[in-house]
Prior knowledge:
The chain is built from 13 helices and 23 strands. It is globular. Helix 3 packs across helix 4. The strands form five sheets. Strands 13, 14, 15, 17, 20, 22 and 23 form a seven-stranded antiparallel β-sheet that branches. Strands 1-2-4-3-5-6 form a six-stranded mixed β-sheet, sandwiched between helices. A four-stranded mixed β-sheet has the order 9-10-11-12. The protein is α+β, with helices and mostly antiparallel strands.
Amino acid sequence: MILTLSIPMRDGVRLFTAVHLPDDTPGPFPVVLFRTLYNQADRIEAAPGWVKEGFAYVNQDVRCSCRSEGVGWDPWLQEEADGADTLAWIRAQPWCNGQICMVGGSYCGEAQLLAAASGDPALVGCVPQVMPGHFHDSTMYTGGAFLLALNAGWALGSLHRHCGIPCRPELPPLEEMLPTLPIRNLDQVYGFDAPVPWWHAWLDHPDDGPFWARYRLSSRVQAYRCPMLFIGGWFDIYTQDLIDATLAVRTHGATPLTRAATRCIIGPWIHSFQLCGYPIPEGVADRETHADKPERVFVRNLLRAPDVDPLPEAPVFTVFVLGANEWRASDTWPPPGTREQRFYLSAPDGAANTAAGAGRLIETPPAGTEAPDVFLYDPRNPVPTHGGHGICCPAGSLEQSDRELRPDVLVYRSKPLTEALTLLGRVTVELFASSSAADTDFTAVLTDIFPDGRVYNLCNGVLRARYREGLDHQVPLPRNTPVRLRIDLWSIAAQIRPGHRIGLQISSSDFPQFARNLNGGGNPADESRPIPARQTVWHDAAHPSALILPVAP
């Protein structure tokens, strides 16, 4: 039986809701709830499976999207109140037995976290997949650089695709719109009738602070009263958020079961759960076995026994280790025994520009003086995004040889390893750098260099120099003066095998994943004049630039 309803929210707006009920059972039933911006067919098709097991399945279009009412979609913020109202409405229905579990990924995953802040007693579990948690430092900005492709492609695009807001009749391809300057004008490029309020608000708040606190998980986590199963991929845009969310809920969740039964699975996937591109044997990391099946077991067990750990034998973290091509379990992140190991940047025999250069990674700190490496960063010719944590641009672990032919990419490589090096944890680059610009970016990419010369990225990061002392405030960059930068490459699980080499790419752009720094030092949202910059990376006794790796036993 399928009921199609429009249910009222507290302000009178009605949301389209489809209720799928078992035909041969009188009920009431446990409920699986999926609230979506996208009206995804795969989740609607999931309904018969849940119904066959004796559960009700509820699919709802969020405010302003698809068949629901509403004016002025405001990404995410609307979902806290609407999610709470939806849970309360379901709990009051005669076909609900008072137990609800939420599912869904990306926007739909964050919708779960916002709804869970209500502390509704009927919500017995959530399965948030590939979802944001920090918002400022993952969804909007990373290292202070605006996530251009994601927010122009997904957020502005969703206004047209999912919320039905008219735009230009013949919209150019996204890749033709992204070079627009200033980036503030991108909503005009889409051709919306009026400025998009939240687009301008996001750009007007480049610093972390109170504006972003209203979005993030940490402001709500103490209200969570149900276990959560977080699922994502190493090359998703929200990888680090997933890990941090797991640790936060296990530490601060409102009940002992919430804390004890929350877990995390991270596979070699991009945001869409496709394999990342790194060479992986067939069948060892399929989504059905390692993501979908655990989700079903978690939901099924909670709805049938809401006071019992649904995965009693499972570790807290189950992660796929690239290179080793195996799944590894741990109850902490990073795992016990993980230590930091530094590989220092060096180029004593010449410049590190391109893979043909003299850049090296060495295990001993540089002694004495060593000439720095120099490259020209021209915002008119940025390094193109090719792999990494991304949406709306090429994401994953992709072969990097062409990228390393560019003279504005510094390449540092270790000697071939004689023993495997297993990395489990967060990767950092400590860089001593200077620039001729009033402000600029530095990017870093950790790579695995195969014996046959192939190069695959493992994790990446960026830092806008004005945020080198914290993402909540800006500090002017002194021209042509070395400063210390810590570039966060987020977490990874990977094994560099014997015969392989560790690689590091340093540059100043990764476009269109990140908006270009035009080097002018002004408001990045409103700058429109690209200024080339002379970038210098220092690696000597006084400036020991280093790649810092989390090496596991």
